[in-house]
Amino acid sequence: MSNEELIKLIDTWGFTLQTTEEGTEFLTFTVRKEDLHEFCRKLKADPATHFDLLFCVTGMDWGNELGVIYHLASTDLKHEIVVKVMTADRETPELDTVCDIWRTAEFHEMEVFDFFGIRFKGHPNLKRLFLTPDWDGYPLRKDYVDEANMVIK
Q1: Which of 79, 98, 145, 149 reaches 20 to 30 Å from 134, CA-CA?
Q2: Helix, strand, coil shares of the chain as percentages rounded to 5?
Q3: Cα 126 vs. chain centroid, distance in angstroms?
Q4: Which CATH superfamily is domain 3-149 in?
Q5: Mean pLDDT over all residues of the chain?
Q6: CB 99 within 8 A of CB 124
Q7: Interval 30-67: pLDDT, tens
Q8: What is the pLDDT of residue 25?
Q9: How far apart are CA 54 and CA 103, in angstroms?
């Protein structure tokens, strides 16, 4: 399915989306955080899209917003997209988990929590993955400060 066809089909689903394609390698949809889980469920369940593979999850700090970027592929239909979601809540950022849709998200969401502090509602075992449980803060946030480990030039 071409990107144009994907856009037309996904637009019929009734979600509030922002679509971007220019200057990017992948067709990208930005979804409201309230719609994330249902949108992702539909992407996998619909036989016309059948995004059965979540192959990359990246936490992001865009300054005013924290968020996650999901890279999806359909192994049988041979198309790929990116789904972005964000939250302006930097104090208690929370998004729905998608690990019940793609099992591999369980690991990736723990990594995003560890480094960005984004909690995933419904995650079965959300905990620090790389850092020690007593680590203070989230080191991949732009506002993170760690005087003891700072590299000074």
Answers
A1: 98
A2: 25, 25, 50
A3: 15
A4: NADH:ubiquinone oxidoreductase Nqo5 subunit (3.30.460.80)
A5: 93
A6: yes
A7: 999 999 999 999 999 999 999 999 999 999 999 999 99
A8: 82
A9: 9
